[in-house]
Amino acid sequence: MGYMKVIVSSCGAPLLSTMSELDGQRRTNDLQNIFLQSTRAFSLLSGFMGLFLILDGQEIIRVWVGQSVVVDYRLVLVLSLAYIVALSQHPSSLVPLAAGRHRLMGWWSVVEGVANLLLSIYWARQYGLLGVALGTAVPMVALRISIQPWYALRILQLSGRRYIVEGLGRPLIACVLFVLISRPILHLVPVTNGFQLMVTAIWQGLLFLFLSLTVGSCRSDRDYVIGRVSAMKSHIVRISGRVILFRAA
User: Fold this and answer.
1) What is the DSSP letter of 165?
2) Is 58 in contact with 70 (CB distance < 8 Å)?
3) 8 and 90 in contact (C-beta within 8 Å)?
4) Is 35 exposed, middle or buried (0-12, 13-18, 19+ CB in 10 A)?
């Protein structure tokens, strides 16, 4: 879960700067569009990482830590589902910061922390570590699907229907298709060692990339990705040319 959070947070840093600039220039339409686009991107990113842990979590634990710890897969399952929801909502947590209206965020963070502590203590007595995981997951998910997106939409003056349809709809379909395709293949070709896990990660990554570009994103997203890839290729070619000239000199 820590690796997932670090990846998403690092991707969100430049997004916050862009949102702040658009808000300062009062470019509401552009801010709405980049919010919807980033919601699709973060939903796909968190969806892939979380679903990879859900589908292959037992094999990852077995290869990485050992067979004796596979029983803790329940913790991975609960937390992965929770963090898929939480991290897909990362853009909605950046909107109040970009607009300078983040005081309410402080209050709901305190409420989430208190609820996390109390529920973890209460459920730990009944379910042990699983109870602690549930105590973390329940308030986090409850907040991310209620107050946080509502507050962001209010700041952006964006309708909930447009947010669900244009922001979350396509990534949700891509994630569902990914699970429906991956599960039968994993049953036919079970993972038993590190090499097979690596191969599984590769074909699942390629599958999810295909679904993301075809189903999980719109044309503007694909044009953006193509443009970024072309720019990266040009940059690599320029650097390679300079290296060749340097060596020749």
Assistant:
1) I
2) yes
3) yes
4) buried
- Cα-Cα end-to-end distance for the chain: 49
**Cα dihedral value 237, 238, 240, 244, nearest 10:** 130
For 218, list phi and psi in degrees, rounded to 5.
Answer: -100, 180
**In the block, which residue shows the tokens 């191969």?**
199
SS3 219: helix
Query: How far apart, in whole angstroms, are the C-alpha atoms of residue 204 and residue 193?
Result: 16
Contact yes or no for 118/40 (Cβ under 8 A): no
Q: pLDDT at residue 245 above 70?
A: no
Question: Within 10 A of 112 (CB to CB), how many other CB atoms are there?
Answer: 18
Q: How confident is the model at residue 249 (pLDDT cuts 50, 70, 90)?
A: low
